[in-house]
Design goal:
The structure is a homodimer of 280-residue chains. The first copy, chain A, is an alpha/beta fold and 280 residues long. Helix content of chain A is 38%, strand content 21%.
Chain lengths: 280, 280
């Protein structure tokens, strides 16, 4: 994802200058353009989109860079237990700056925004206890992302944080066709491990090696689910990281959930490398 | 690591042509130069270097790209159980093409090249049973790498395969100061886990999720060693990969040791990302 053809074409509009200066400018500027390709001046846009799932109305956020043109891969972003917050929107912006169209899916519904961890826990419990509903909600978000006229529907990924990590795994357990998914400190347990056979895309699990919220038996069961279904999976354990390691403000205080700058940065780079592979 | 200043300077020697053609050529060529920076025409050189450790004479192989100039990071490459083979030299060449100086360390000694798995097993058993000797041998290799006049001794990493993976972990357990190490399908067990406290650099473990040669208890003990010593570590499990997943010709037939193209490619990319971090 670099600057579009327009950026290079614009070079032809330079005023005519002396030969030597021109040569120098050509080298410096086309060098700069290419070296800065990943951070070309971006015009990030976003809009809230309401969309239905059965009787519910969900409200997601689409984020893209309108300084680039043409179809591009789409990335579904699934929220943590507090629902869509500035955190998810920020991640979507980061993805848009990388050249993707990002859509923050809404699992809870437009009028359901938990105010505190107690309400958040009630909601995650509801959806984790009703996996068919969870799958229906996240699939509705995927369908909405694919409706964007900017998205190359042959190149779709989903990422999720905590509850959202669980949710993107449920998305592919449901049989949804994507190019890949990434879970960041997501719960890995499944009430129906045989559904692992529905996963047809590469899976990247970014996991805090000291996450006390993920029981060793759930981690082992997840690995066995992947093995049994011959899924193309990999799992990265970040030493020293606990739960919520990418989240500077998890919304509660618990030594088992803490931001870890190194693990955050590294897992984002690992995701980018994963995307480079699945979208090549 | 891109083309040196000479490559860009050479552009100034182009014949003078019409303005439009010049503009087009400047854009196309400087674009090509930059996009191809990672694969700039390389002149890979190598030489065998004999060096001592106590009474033993070891014979390693130094590999570098002499089309680039100046100091560059050094990477020690430690062999699998068959000793230095074409496999290790090929990895060293791959590293040299990335712009590093690579040195294939010799652990066994110049006259000790096992002919078959039986001899190889006897040697690995010898060194894994005598960790002080193993550490002395690998430290001798590190010292030799650092003697190269091409190496920036402030930027040193070590990588190793199978037995060599174990060995690079022993290197840092011994207190050697490096910027980072990468173990590919290395044995992770340690007879002296308290020595983990000597590890002061980032550690990347690339592990086959189905490696039957690495016992779950050894894996767990390794993680606990890292935790207890507060090492900056991460471990990647590649789904579907067994032992020797980077090695197309492991030298023996065993369903527990098999090449895995995806895990090979991905672990190499993971190593490159790790190097980008530790050498930045």
């Amino acid at each position: 994802m670099g600057p579009g053809p327009d950026a290079l074409t614009a070079i032809g509009k330079w005023p005519k200058v002396g030969y030597d200066k021109l040569v120098m400018k050509m080298i410096l500027l086309s060098t700069a353009l290419l070296l800065c390709a990943g951070s070309a001046s971006a015009a990030i846009q976003s809009k809230v989109i309401e969309y239905p799932q059965a009787d519910a109305t969900l409200a997601g956020v689409l984020v893209w860079d309108d300084s680039i043109s043409g179809l591009r891969p789409g990335v579904l972003v699934v929220h943590q237990w507090l629902g869509i917050t500035d955190y998810e929107k920020h991640r979507a912006e980061m993805l848009a700056r990388l050249g993707y169209v990002a859509f923050c899916a809404d699992i809870y519904g437009k009028d359901s925004r938990p105010k505190d961890p107690t309400e958040a826990r009630a909601l995650t419990t509801k959806y984790k206890s009703d996996r068919p509903l969870l799958r229906a909600r996240v699939n509705a978000g995927l369908a909405q992302l694919e409706k964007s006229e900017l998205v190359d529907t042959n190149r779709i990924a989903a990422i999720g944080y905590c509850f959202g990590g669980t949710t993107v795994i449920e998305l592919v357990r449901s049989g949804a066709q994507l190019n890949g998914i990434v879970s960041f400190h997501g719960g890995l347990d499944s009430p129906a491990p045989a559904d692992g056979r529905n996963i047809k895309c590469p899976v990247l699990i970014c996991h805090g090696a000291d996450d006390p919220f993920e029981k060793p038996e759930d981690l082992a069961a997840f690995e066995n689910e992947m093995r049994a279904a011959k899924v193309d999976w990999r799992l990265i354990k970040y030493g020293g990281a606990v739960h919520s390691f990418t989240q500077p403000n998890p919304g509660f205080t618990d030594p088992g959930a803490r931001y870890n700058e190194k693990a955050d940065r590294r897992s984002w780079e690992d995701m980018k490398l994963f995307f480079a592979e699945i979208f090549k």
